Amino acid sequence: MPLSDILRAYWSSAEVVTNAVILMNLVGALLLGMLVGYERSYHGRAAGMRTYGLVCMASAALTVIGGYPNFWFGGHAQMLIAADPTRVIQGIVTGIGFLGAGVIMREGFNISGLTTAASIWASSVIGVLVGVGFYLAAIVLALLSAGVMIYLSRIEAWLPSRHAIAITMRFRENYEPQEDALRRMALERGYEIAGGSLMIGQDKGKLEWRFVALALSKRSGSPMSQLACELRRFEGIEGFQLSHARN
Predict the structure, then answer these.
(1) Which superfamily, per CATH, for 164-244?
(2) CA dist 43 → 33, 48, 65 (Å)
């Protein structure tokens, strides 16, 4: 086949129009993904506008090409089996799952990155919706996702809630703490030990207790700084660590 015929096959009017449609899908998906990622970027998260934009755009690209199998390879793919968009979407969801797992971090009782992982997954779904042509649904999903991350924290602050503190206490050698006394001290300061959170270990004859102290109500519970000062003066404690138990 002459080179001119090959070039005409790849740059025919139908091929150019198809590429233009795909390009508009990619640009739209990029903008919607960046919209969702702005909130994460504003709060200094590892995954920001670039990550969300790329995830959304790539998901749209992988989905939209499945709708034009007749134009693959310059229209010379007629003998290929028709693409199955559902398998493409399944592959996207699986791949994004690995990406989301990479941003989830756990340290003791603290788990961070869950919101980022969930929103990255939502960004990929937005891209899929753009790829299959559900533009209005994609726009609404992007706005809802951004709204949830921006405004839902304000609603949560207004609703009844209880904050929690992850506490690690290292006791002096041969000192034997009493669980009942510890629970009583927590209640006196407006906390209760969360059920099933107590972990006890020993290293070189020294006991280490880890647990989550859950405030009795939204306005109860001594400040973390005050708890730290009290723990410093406790004669049986050699060291301690306090942090907000968050997810």
Answers:
(1) ACT domain (3.30.70.260)
(2) 16, 9, 34
The rounded Cα 99 to chain-centroid distance in angstroms is 10
Cα of 148 vs its chain's centroid, Å: 13
**CA nearest 77: which of 68, 85, 87, 86?**
68
Contacts 24+ apart (CB under 8 A), 230-236: 230/189, 231/169, 236/171, 236/172, 236/175, 236/177
Q: Which residues of the chain have pLDDT under 50?
A: 247
Q: Which pLDDT tens digit goes with each residue over 54-69?
A: 899 999 988 888 877 7
Domain boundaries, the chain: 3-158, 164-244
pTM, entire model: 0.68
Closest CA to 53 of 8, 136, 108, 119: 119
